[in-house]
Amino acid sequence: MLNENRKRELIAIAMEQLKYAYAPYSNFKVGAVLVTKEGKIYKGCNIENAAYTPTNCAERTAFFKAVSEGEREFEAIIIVGGQNGVVTDYTAPCGVCRQVMMEFCNPDEFKIIIAKNENDYKEYSLKQLLPMGFGPDNL
Ligand code: THU
C-alpha cells in the first residue's frame, strides 16, 4: 500500500525523470515510476526516434526495464509530463501503454497515478482507464 508520503516521494522521483526524456521531436517530456508489489521502483522516460514509430513512452520504458529484470507483480505507476518538461496538466497513459499494463497487472488493483505536482494528483484503477480490456485471461 502506498501512503500519502510515499506517493509524494514517488511523484518527485517521476519529476526527476523528466530530465532524461529524449523528446527532440515533440518536446513533450514524460517521466514515470513503476512500483512493484514488494515496493521496488523502476524509472522510465519517453525515448523518441527520428523514424517516429519506434518511440517508446515513459510508462513502457519502466515496464520493460522491470519485466526484463524478472519483475511480474506491480502495484502502481506514477506519471508526469509536459511540454519542454514543464508540468502544467495531468498526463494520462496512451492506449498502447494501457494495453501493456493489462498484460502484467490486475485491472481491478493496479493503480495509475497522474500528477501535476506532489500535492496535486489523481488516482485510477487500470480498469477505469481500460474498461473491458483484453488480456491474458481472454486467451
Ligand atoms: N508519451 C509518453 O511517454 N507517455 C504518455 O503517457 C503520453 C505520451 C510520449 C510519447 C511521445 O514521446 C510524446 O509523449 C508525445 O506524444
What does this structure look like?
By secondary structure, the chain is an alpha+beta fold. The protein has four helices and five strands; from the N terminus they run αββαβαββα. The chain has a five-stranded mixed beta sheet with strand order 2-1-3-4-5, with helices on both faces. The protein starts with a helix and ends in a 10-residue tail after the last helix. The model has no long low-confidence stretch (mean pLDDT 98). The structure holds tetrahydrodeoxyuridine. The site of tetrahydrodeoxyuridine (THU) has 16 residues, from strand 1, helix 2 and strand 3. Tetrahydrodeoxyuridine binds next to strand 1, helix 2 and strand 3.
Give a brief rundown of this model.
With 139 residues, this protein is of the alpha+beta class.
Query: What is the number of E strands?
Result: 5
Helix content: 25-40%
Strand order, largest beta sheet? 2-1-3-4-5
Distance between the termini: 30 Å
Quote the beta fraction. Answer: 25-35%
Chain-averaged pLDDT: 98
Radius of gyration equals 14 Å
What is the overall number of helices?
4
Low-confidence runs: none
Instruction: Please trace the helix and strand order, writing H or E for each element.
Output: HEEHEHEEH
Main sheet record: 5 strands, mixed
Structural class: alpha+beta
Estimate the global geometry from the Cα principal axes: globular
The bound ligands are: tetrahydrodeoxyuridine
What is the topological layout?
Layout: H1 4-17, E1 28-36, E2 41-45, H2 58-67, E3 74-83, H3 95-104, E4 111-117, E5 120-125, H4 126-129
The structure holds tetrahydrodeoxyuridine.
